[in-house]
What does this fold into?
Amino acid sequence: MQYKPNIYSQTSHIVGFTDYLKPPKAFHDVNVEELLWRASMSPRIRGHPFHFVPKVAFMFLATNQTSNVKKVDGNARMHPESPVFHERSQEVEWGMVSLIEAVRRLLANALLDILNQHFVLLSETCIPLYNFSTVYSYLINSTRTFVEVFDDPSSVRYYLSNYTRITVDQWRKGWAWFAIDREVAIESISDRQYFPEFLKCKGHCFPDEHYLPTFVHLKFAARNANRTLTWVDWSKGGPHPMEYRSPNVTAALLSSLRSGYGRKCEYNGRSTDVCFLFARKFMPDTLDNLLRLAPQIMYFST
It folds into this structure.
């Protein structure tokens, strides 16, 4: 009798493109270390063997007082226990290292969606100055990232002597509100060289104004526009920018912000007057005026 070996065929499940392109679930049970590890993965082959529509991830670093969100939702006041943030918020303190840890978690969660190609950090007091089509086109077609980076000698007081991997001449400052592409986002959440230095910070040393500007200056200077896309008015001085209230919100103000008060900047090698896509700090009582003026000034659909 001829011997015929048993042949077992086993097909392992391979996730197809349809499943691969599905956005990840908003809730997951991984810890921060696992989250950063998973988010740091990146395909080595350039291009996409499937129909690819890039997305922009708008990430909000928000306080509990997100009344604008609550008003749209039909309620009177925002609480961290509301369905929007229930069991999802973590304590972050102004000026402390917990701020940049929170930003890394936001980036890591957004990176889980392979379609997200640009990442914008905003606050609950930020507003768009242009409609979505304009904002999307500006970001997707840009050849630069937008992280404000400048050398401010006064900020050296926040430089600690135990930052052994960063020298004073490498130290940079910039406002926290950025727009970066996927490569910069992956590299920043994977950073094991400079980020641990900022974790040594104790007290109010404002790492949110120094870590990413320093990191981008050291790693991606040639690709960075060295400017932010978020208008902030610091003309009054002090540790906090000007707050816009309802009487301030007029068609003239929004038009001025859209033009950057006559500023010019560079976009993909050409001069433009579209320098800011967002603005802050707009308080909750400005919402009605903003909704009324949006179709007129920003050409939002009513």
Remarks:
- Confidence is low (pLDDT under 50) at residues 1-13, 67-81.
- The longest helix spans residues 98-111.
- The chain has ten helices and eight strands.
- Residues 29-39+53-228 form one domain.
